[in-house]
Amino acid sequence: MASLFTYKFVVASVAIATVYVVVTIYLMNYSLVTSTILGDFPLGYKEKLLLALLGGMWTAMTRQALSLLVITSLLTGANVTLLVSRLRDLKNQGKVRIVIGGSSLLGMIGSGCAACGLPILALLGLGGSVAYLPLGGMELSYLSALLLMFSFFILVRSSLNQSCTVSPQKPLL
Amino acid sequence: MNKFVFEEWSTVVQVITNSVTAIAVAAIAVIAVLFWRTGSLTVGSAGVPTAIANNGNTAPTQPAPGDNGAPVKVSVDDDAVLGDKNAKVTLIDFSDYECPFCKRHFTDTYPQLKKDFIDTGKVKMVYRDLPLSFHQNAPKEAQAAECARKQGGDSVYYKYHDQIFTKTTSNGTGLALDQLPVIAKDIGLNVTKFQTCLDSGETKAEVDKDLADAAKYGASGTPTFFIGKSTSTGEIDAVKLVGAQPYAAFKTIIDQELSK
User: Fold this and answer.
1) Would you call A55 and B68 a contact, using CB atoms and an 8 Å cutoff?
2) A61, A89, A111, A116: which to substitute to probe chain B, counting the most B Cβ within 10 Å?
3) Closest Cα to residue B28, out of A109, A144, A104?
4) Residue B45 has what pLDDT?
């Protein structure tokens, strides 16, 4: 287990988690972020506005939503890092597998509920519908966190279980 | 061609889990397309409104303007103005009296904005209604504020506005509807006239107009702010800012608009 959670693993996971959080925060104001980055504005303005919007994670999200976002992002970071290292191992062994990831996307969609009406979901035209759920759409974040935890567990198990074992029921000779 | 080798049960489970999630996301996308095309969805018989796209507004769904990053043309309409009517910059606030993030904006950011920009004559604020359909009391509260305005003009409107946000605990029924005339009395309005206005629904059209305009401008959640240089027509080329953003975000945009 210790060989799995190395310094490299932690750094890569935290880096991916940070990108995940930043993208999720900016998704709420993606048109403003895009126009600020691409527009003809002074560099100081771009820097100030982008930093200020990042600060929105404290004011534009509930504590529950922010906690879930952090959990989901860390789990996504850990999952992606493990998945990449597992795929690398498989590549070295000459085996190819395709794994379809959807829980991270679900997490990002559900996490961005930082205003009434759920703008991230509204991008898909789902803002109003999810708001009628008992937790106002937070269900998606819980679901994604659960799926990511499950996926992480499976990946850890799969990564650790790489040595050949001898079944006690089967005699060697 | 790729060769699929499933040598461990865990990998099979992993692929199934992720595939199920992917299918769920695909299903969401399909529903989204349905929303996009029809503008409505029947949610069942639990008393939930059937037309819920556009926050209950049944107008056809349009692609949100400004989502490509270009400024959005937004009108102040004939809504209540706070501050100097000739201020260089206009801030239009599409808000919902029962939205917790709108209340958070009111308590955390609005006082500083008012002190630094509105009271100094640099910015005028226009509050426009976007009562979301899942916030039960919000439409009536919006109408009540408009009734207050009918009696006392814009300044009274904002007194009433401040009282609602101060008193509501938000989330749909944070302020009991029987408190609306109490607030009217507290700020010195004629309660009988106020109640008649509220009961007759004479300000409903005004609120509905704001709701329709919000959809037109791409305001799909609350609070949504539009900030831009004031014009004589009342229609501004605005930057769209979504959510209860910190004071620094408003200040940066306003300073930029003031420097133009």
Assistant:
1) no
2) A116
3) A109
4) 30
pLDDT tens digits along B166-190: 999 998 999 999 999 999 999 999 9
pTM value? 0.74
CB neighbour class for A53 (10 Å; exposed up to 12, middle 13-18, buried from 19): buried
From chain B, the residues in CB contact with A119 under 8 A are 220-221, 242-243
Distance from C-alpha of A135 to C-alpha of A65, rounded to nearest angstrom: 11
Inter-residue contact B213 to B77 (CB < 8 Å): yes
Instruction: Write out pLDDT tens, residues A71-107.
Output: 888 888 888 888 788 777 777 776 555 544 555 555 5
Closest CA to B186 of B171, B166, B169: B166
For the stretch A11-67, pLDDT in tens is 999 999 999 999 989 988 988 999 999 999 999 999 999 999 999 999 988 888 888
Secondary structure of chain B as H, E, C letters: CCCECCCCHHHHHHHHHHHHHHHHHHHHHHHHHHHHHHCCCCCCCCCCCCCCHHHHCCCCCCCCCCCCCCCEEEECCCCCEECCCCCCEEEEEEECCCCHHHHHHHHHCHHHHHHHHHCCCCEEEEEEECCCCCCCCHHHHHHHHHHHHHHHHHHHHHHHHHHHHHHCCCCCCCCCHHHHHHHHHHCCCCHHHHHHHHHHCCCHHHHHHHHHHHHHHCCCCECEEEEEECCCCCEEEEEEEECCCCHHHHHHHHHHHHCC
Give the count of Cβ contacts less than 8 A between chain A and B: 194
Residue A93 forms contact with B (CB below 8 Å): no
- The one-letter code for the residue type at B187 is I
Helix (H) or strand (E) holding A147: helix A138-160
Chain A, nearest residue to B241 by Cα: A29
Residues of B in contact with A62 (CB under 8 A): 100
Put simply, the answer to whether B253 touches A35 (Cβ < 8 Å) is: no
